[in-house]
Amino acid sequence: MSIKVRYFASLVERVGQSESDLAFTQSITVRDVWQVDTLGKPIPENILAAVNMDYADLNQQVQDGDEVAFFPPVTGG
Amino acid sequence: MAMKWLFFRRLPEVNLKVKICSDAFNPWQEIQDFQSTFTNASGKMGATNIFIGTMRDFNENTGVHSMTLEYYPGMTEKQLEKIGADAKQRWHILDAYIVHRVGEIRPDDTIVAVAVWSSHRGDAFDACRFIMEALKSTAPFWKKELLESGQTRWVEKNTDGYQKK
Lengths: 77, 165
Fold this sequence. Notes:
Low-confidence stretches of chain A: none
Largest interface: A-B, 17 and 27 residues
CATH class of chain B: Alpha Beta
Largest sheet of chain B: 5 strands, mixed
Structural class of chain A: alpha+beta
Number of strands of chain A: 7
Low-confidence stretches of chain B: 10-14
Number of helices of chain B: 3
Radius of gyration of chain B: 16 Å
Mean pLDDT of chain B: 90
Helix content of chain A: 10-25%
CATH superfamily of chain B: Molybdopterin biosynthesis MoaE subunit
Radius of gyration of chain A: 12 Å
CATH superfamily of chain A: Beta-grasp domain
Strand content of chain B: 35-45%
CATH topology of chain A: Ubiquitin-like (UB roll)
Shape of chain A: globular
Oligomer: heterodimer
Order of helices and strands of chain A: EHEEHEEEE
Helix content of chain B: 25-40%
Structural class of chain B: alpha+beta
Mean pLDDT of chain A: 97
Strand order of the largest sheet of chain B: 1-2-6-8-3
CATH topology of chain B: Aldehyde Oxidoreductase, domain 3
């Protein structure tokens, strides 16, 4: 199973990358993706996540081919 | 320099247009141009409500020189369309228009314009406020300020979204 991971805004600086590709052999959640891809960095309390460009819960299961994104609270307008 | 439209889509089923652009725009001209294309609202349009957000040269008691607006291409447009569809479900809207700036912006530049057309002012007022508050609390945009001091900082404060007054 392969997924694409993306980071935005201040999380790019915190994580040190804007995107990556991950491969898994077992079922995982959005939270697992963060843990693996950031090598265990603490997950920010106010983090937001999306799967395939829809807001997602951290406990949501990730499917093969999904795009998982992490970002801080939004501040547009 | 010609304006670059990064995204432009008309959605007849929800009567909504969303536009994201990387260059400065005149919100009044944008709204006027959009209104001139109406076909579905002719004769029914009794109220237009407009919100325009403009960049200040200060934030949290600090002088701000400029800022960079980042977004999530694809998700941002999708979320703005969802907000418009939600507004359409809750109020009688004839048409709505959202245009949002991205990239580097300066004080006095327009950040966002939201316009809602309806037959009656109540729907126009409420739907416009709903769209704007939902945009601020859920649309994936992020501001990074360049302060007068030369330092940079991410704007981290969020808002709670629409609450009926």
